Amino acid sequence: MDVREGDRLRADLEGFVGEVFASLTRRGWQDRSAAYLVGLMTDGRRKSVQPMAARLGEVNEQSLQHFLANTPWDPVPVRAAIARRMYPVVQPAGWVVDDTGYPKSGTSSPCVARQYSGTLGKTGNCQVSTTVHLASDEASCPVNWRLFVPESWDPGSVKAPSDIAHRRARCALPEAEVHREKWRLALDAIDEILDWDIPVPPVLVADCGYGSNAYFRHGLTQRGIRYAVQVAEDLRVLPAGAVRTTVPYSGLGPRPLAVYRDEPVTVKAFITARGHRAAVRVAWRIGSKMRHGRHRPMASRFVFTRVRPAGVASRRLHKGQDLPEVWLIAEWPASAKEPTRYWLSDLPAAMGRSKLIAACKLRWRVEHDYRELKTGLGLDHYEGRKWAGWHHHVTLVAAAHAFCTLQRLHPKVHAPA
């Protein structure tokens, strides 16, 4: 990098920090933020405080550690500023709800426990967070975070060990932070974002850990947010044409209610009954692989049909009402004996197939960018023991990722002062 390019990057970073960290008004806090971002973006195997301070040279390790773990700055206004800064850059096709694991070797980190992590692909000793991202095919940006509190860290749970009060105090967990399901954490994070004065997304995308939950889907509908969420193969549905009927009144007791008489079936059974010939080929975006000098389109075969989700929770949420009609979409590759993935979506019935699939597949961008967040920017390298420190770290990593995205998409455009 030549001197002129280095000067431009420093000016860009200074403007970016001044905008995104404007809420950090105490002396030296923005300087520490800038130093931490430089440390995260500088080459190095570990992105925890000690090795970063050593690489930066002029930064005092103790002051950087104090800024991260002990200073009382609120990460929420910083996240809101990142979201507002990145929205016009990412131009999100939707929001993506995801979670990720942070493997740990000890038991001292806040909310670490033996729990399932998609990152590990198994149960292991780790922390898990729920995250909401702005996402398009060109870029994504994590904008809000929730650290999952396992039942073993909830003093009101029978699963909590006898020393949990000591462990929580050592990590400075706020009293209000108790066990909540991940889908509830996602809705909490969404509610917070809705107060940040950025547009509601065209669609929200999530994996089956969230999408299979009727209460999560219902929560999105209540907030006016359309969804295209992956669901498990055993989720139960009725055909869209199913109607509620009432048995004749016998003249005794309360009048019978109108109910669905058909027995719900799993989405797997519903789709396989239609057969492989019901699948149609759909291309939804241009991929990275080449053929004859051109980028090949991403394409597969899908079955599209309309259904009414009819699990126990769905029936409970819509008692005395018609069950909502939504899309059921199944991916059924030509080489597969049965469908491989399923989605539910309340996007309009008239929406084109390629747009529906593009929405369902939007998670790929976040999965791609998680590699940069973890391997390049040290998302899971935080070694502190404080609740606040973890939230500060992930917010600073999100800021570093946002700055890198700005440089990648607009390398010659200076960040606004």
Descriptive report:
This protein is an alpha+beta fold. Helices cover 37% and strands 23% of the residues. Strands 1, 2, 3, 4, 5, 6, 7, 10, 11, 12, 13 and 14 form a twelve-stranded mixed beta sheet that branches. Helix 2 crosses helix 3, helix 2 packs across helix 14 and helix 5 runs parallel beside helix 14. The longest helix is centred in the last third of the chain and has 23 residues. The C terminus is likely disordered.
Which features characterize this protein?
14 helices; alpha+beta; about 425 residues
Tell me the distance between the termini. 23 Å
Oligomer: single chain
Strand fraction equals: 15-25%
Integer average pLDDT? 92
Order of helices and strands: HHHHHEEEEHHEHHEEEEEHEEHEEHHH
Largest sheet: 12 strands, mixed
As a percent range, the share of helical residues equals 25-40%
Instruction: Give the CA-based shape.
Output: globular
Uncertain ranges: 413-417
Number of helices: 14
The number of strands is 14
- Structural category is alpha+beta
Radius of gyration: 24 Å
Task: Give a quick rundown of the structure.
With 417 residues, this protein is an alpha+beta fold. It has helices at 3-20, 29-41, 49-56, 61-69, 75-90, 164-171, 182-193, 208-211, 214-222, 267-274, 312-317, 353-360, 363-376, 387-409; strands at residues 94-103, 113-117, 122-135, 140-147, 204-206, 227-231, 236-239, 244-245, 259-260, 265-266, 280-291, 294-309, 326-331, 341-345.
